[in-house]
Amino acid sequence: xxxxxxxxxxxxxxxxxxxxxxxxxxxxxGSAMKSEAKPKKMMKMFQAVPAEKATLLQEGKAKAFCPExxxxxxxxxxxxxxxxxxxxxxxxxxxxxxxxxxxxxxKLTDIKVVDVTSLKFIAVDKAFYVVGxxxxxTMTMVSxxxxxxxxxxxxxxKANGGEVVDYNGAYKAAEGDFDKDSKMxxxxxxxxxxxxxxxxxxxxxxxxxxxTTTAEAKAFIVENKLCKDLNAKQMQAVGLYLxxx
Length: 245
What we know:
- The structure is a single chain.
- The chain has one domain.
- Strands 2-1-3-4 form a 4-stranded antiparallel β-sheet. The protein has a 3-stranded antiparallel β-sheet with strand order 6-5-7, sandwiched between helices.
- The protein has 7 helices and 7 strands; from the N terminus they run H-H-E-E-H-E-E-E-E-H-E-H-H-H.
- The protein has helices at 2-25, 31-35, 95-103, 150-160, 167-203, 214-224, 232-244; strands at residues 81-85, 88-92, 109-114, 121-123, 128-131, 144-147, 163-165.
- By secondary structure, the chain is α+β, with helices and mostly antiparallel strands.
- It starts with a helix and ends with a helix.
């Protein structure tokens, strides 16, 4: 009986070692094995705020999304801008999208930007922008964040780098970056559109409806519960696909 138990114990030990070797062969030894079961934490973006802390100035079913690129506004709230266009308020995820709408011929008035410190909208002519800080930008490789207080802007620049300028300086920087940033964005959106097609095929009900903007497509997805359990990135991907198909 003892021999049988010892044999079974030995076989169990061998199996354990074999499993460990398989994991080692896959590059999962040591600390990698210990961390394998731990879920990866999503990195919080500096621009993002909880939805309840974001002020949405525009109206309509798609009010939570940028009318130019379709991105979810609370996720990029600290770079949000807003303006009146043809009598209606439009809220943008970034100054890049402000420039894009202007280049399309839209006449923007009463332009506002979110103050990073208070999270409230302020008139752009009273804002102090920090251009080129180490904090990641929205729709651009050169970040642009605004503050109501010059002292806050200077402190932010001291901590994170960048140059303190007025709105005209920030707009000129965004305009100068526009072509390069647009190419970068187009490349990312093309990849996301392909992913969106796959996600749509697996997780969404089918629709023949046509959409003129990504924001409109995303609003339709939400209103009609078209897809199951999409996270923000998946929603953006499907929205891009539905708009571009």
